Amino acid sequence: MQRFTLSFSALFSSAEFSFLPTRQIERVEMTAVDDRCAGTGSALLEDECDLKNTPTRSRTQRRDAPVVVVWRNVVLMSMLHTAALYALVLIPSASAYTLLWTVFCFVFSALGVTAGAHRLWSHRSYKASLPLRIFLAVGNSMAFQNDIFEWSRDHRAHHKYSETDADPHNASRGFFFAHVGWLLVRKHPSVIENGQKLELSDLKNDKVVMFQRRFYKSSVVVMCFLIPTMLPWFLWTESLWVGFFVPALLRYTLVLNATWLVNSAAHMWGNRPYDVNISPRENRFVTFSAIGEGYHNYHHTFPYDYATTRHGPRQTHWGREPQEWINCSDVSLIISG
Ligand SMILES: [Zn+2]
Ligand SMILES: [Zn+2]
Fold first, then answer.
1. What is the pTM of this model?
2. Does residue 21 belong to any structural domain of this protein?
3. Could you report the per-residue pLDDT of 53-91, keeping only the tens digit for each?
4. What's the gap in Å between 51 CA and the centre of ligand 1?
């Protein structure tokens, strides 16, 4: 497995290997970042500003550590992806309602990750009322990508130590590692060591986050597998077989890969209009699949912004960036009435 990971790493980290042209556009708006970093008083924002002020060389120093494969995860991920491939064959036999339900489950679980674990809980980029937090936590359990506390802790480490050994899905180790490989091996000691230094008190004080963490396994069984499978069977007599493979397993696998593409593809391919000194990029394919999260150069430059970008659809006749509507703090007011 070690050789397998390393060979993928060598292949995908090659500077010549690129699907999208990389245009290095002049660094813009960094003055605004520097201004915002001055005397913020926010622990989370100051963490991000510390990183900006850390010399690149010291951030990228490598420390050798043995790669320990977690075979249980390798087997489970292989089984899941095989089941998702089989589910593609079942799509023609699924009813139109089941396909619509699959799309609904995809969007709901993706929101639990992007609007929930990411923008709300990892970055605190907007405030949410209790009903909205419960709604997003339920969607997050449907997405089954580790509980909100763990997801947010890993994501804060990703921003603070981006592309160093302390970054859980360090993209400098290649596409495969950043995409899924990081879940198939034991964490690098630097991830654990530096993760313990992160400020997480806001998450510990959030009752919704801690409640979801306490009942995470059962909430995943219900939201990720039982409801997506049973509801089509109960409401429009879809077969349980199709319900299990299409809205449950295929949808789950697609949301996983859409999220992982942000860590892999959006750290490798695309342009960098906001900061050419970091590797995250603007990747429109990832933006489409991960409901707005592909504008990754913007996000790593302005991680505290609830908007996904200042470019893209909202500057066209389509109106504002779709996820911006979802992430807007106005939503909490609407839901709470
Ligand atoms: Zn990133
Ligand atoms: Zn982020």
1. 0.77
2. no
3. 443 434 444 567 889 999 999 999 999 999 999 999 999
4. 14
